[in-house]
Design brief:
Helix content of chain A: over 70%
Largest sheet of chain A: none
Order of helices and strands of chain A: HHHHHHHH
Number of helices of chain B: 3
Oligomer: heterodimer
Distance between the termini of chain B: 171 Å
Structural class of chain A: mainly alpha
Strand content of chain B: under 5%
Distance between the termini of chain A: 49 Å
Largest sheet of chain B: none
Number of strands of chain A: 0
Radius of gyration of chain A: 23 Å
Strand content of chain A: under 5%
Helix content of chain B: over 70%
């Protein structure tokens, strides 16, 4: 899609592809203030997601019955998916229960905020803004280090960076690598993976939207207008792929959180 | 700080890696609020529902298992009883057969013993009768011969002692001649 759009832009000279700046809409409060100066759409959506998730699950479970209705069944399935598929499978039968609420909250918070990117009008995955992704990764970072220290004492930092069962002469090489990989790269990749996939998805939406609009409305060339229709058709496929990625990234983020916590809990065992 | 960044962003295009700190704050606080609600209300309700369902399913399974086990025990019991019944019937039949054979053998033995006894008795009786006949015959022959001889001789041979002696001698002679005759006849037969 991109080369077509770019080609058209050079031919016609009128098309300006959207940039990251276009993902940063003017703020809501104060109205239309420059992005970053006040309360923006992205923040409103974060708050909206909290309200929606809490309302959905609280309403679904308000009159819980043994024979569930459709809404209750959906809520319970979502819970069981996180509880068993992520918590129990990764952290293990013995200790997973304490961590289910965190994993559950993470998964649905990220999932709903991702899906916002696929809903017309909202159409902005909250985690395409780096700040939100950093915040989530930072929370998880603090939690797993805290867990490790509480479980193993200050010795945890040694356990986390000195692999057992390797010859001593290789440690000067391994320990710095372990420090970099566990304590520096891990939170960065944890957040940037989410941010980058969401941002790229959002960019595709913007590009397809403006590109198709430009090709159809402003070129006046039947062939290029046809290409614009193709862009829309192609975008539908991208839309479903994007939905899959939105789900997958929420899952991956939560799964990695569970893996980090499990690693901290079991640091002494290997 | 935000202002300077905004200016920076405006100057050279936004860097997607630079965070808007308000968004960091809102996300962290929003997530904290969500976690509060999840930990206090949502997760306990969901966990309870999950456990209830699990318990219900598990309980149902357990009940079914118990019923199955009961049925199995009942079936085993029944089969065992049937087996025992067969064994008992077999045993009784075997016993009856053995008893019948025993009775038959006993009867046969008894009958043959009875027959032997009867034959024995008959033999004894015959022997006794023969003996009796012989002795009575001997007396009669003696008396007869004496009388006859007395008549012929005309002399009373009533003297018992004498007559007895005579008779005895006569009989002894008779017997001797008999045995000699027999011997000669047998010798003649041999020749």
């Amino acid at each position: 899609m991109l080369p077509i759009v770019l080609a058209s832009s050079t031919n016609e000279g009128g098309f300006v592809p959207p940039t990251i700046d276009d993902a940063h809409l003017p703020d809501l409060i104060p109205w239309f203030a420059e992005y970053g100066t006040g309360f923006g759409k992205q923040m409103a959506m974060i708050i909206l997601s909290v309200i929606l998730i809490a309302a959905f699950f609280m309403l679904a479970m308000r009159k819980a019955q043994l024979k569930p209705g459709k809404v209750q069944w959906l809520a319970e399935s979502g819970y069981a998916f996180v509880r068993n598929g992520i918590g129990r499978d990764i952290i293990g039968e013995k200790e997973f229960k304490a961590w289910v609420p965190l994993l559950f909250g993470l998964f649905f918070f990220i999932l709903l905020n991702n899906i916002f990117g696929a809903i017309p009008l909202l159409q902005l995955p909250s985690f395409s803004h780096a700040g939100s992704a950093y915040a989530m990764a930072l929370i998880v970072y603090i939690i797993w280090i805290g867990v490790g220290v509480r479980r193993n004492g200050p010795r945890y930092f040694k356990l986390a960076v000195v692999p057992s069962g390797v010859p001593g002469w290789i440690l000067p090489l391994l320990v710095p690598l372990e420090i970099i990989s566990n304590f520096i790269v891990r939170p960065l990749t944890h957040s940037l993976r989410l941010m980058a996939t969401m941002l790229s998805g959002h960019m595709i939406v913007m590009l397809a939207g403006t590109g198709a609009q430009f090709l159809i409305m402003e070129t006046g060339n039947l062939a290029l207008q046809g290409t614009g229709v193709l862009v829309i058709i192609g975008f539908v496929a991208m839309y479903f792929l994007e939905l899959l990625i939105m789900f997958l990234q929420a899952f991956v983020f939560t799964l990695l959180t569970a893996i980090y916590i499990q690693g901290a809990l079991a640091a002494n065992e290997h | 700080m935000i202002r300077s960044e905004t200016i920076l962003a405006a100057a050279e295009g936004a860097n997607p890696l630079v965070p808007n700190w308000w968004e960091v704050l809102v996300t962290a606080v929003g997530f904290a609020v969500l976690m509060f609600l999840v930990i206090k209300y949502i997760a306990p309700a969901l966990e309870k529902a999950y456990q209830d369902r699990y318990a219900a399913i598990e309980g149902g399974l357990e009940k079914a298992e118990k019923a199955q086990a009961e049925a199995n025990a009942l079936k085993a019991n029944y089969e065992q009883q049937q087996q025992e019944g067969y064994a008992e019937a077999n045993r009784i039949r075997e016993e009856a057969r053995a008893e019948g054979a025993q009775i038959l053998a006993d009867a046969r033995e008894k009958a043959s013993a009875e027959a032997a006894r009867i034959v024995e008795q008959a033999h004894t009786q015959i022997a006794a009768e023969r003996l009796q006949a012989e002795s009575s015959l001997r007396n009669d022959v003696g008396a007869l011969a004496t009388t006859l001889a007395g008549r012929i001789v005309g002399e009373s041979l009533e003297d018992d002692a004498r007559s007895q002696r005579v008779v005895d001698r006569f009989l002894a002679d008779l017997e001797r001649s008999e045995t000699v005759g027999q011997a000669s006849t047998s010798a003649g037969a041999a020749e």
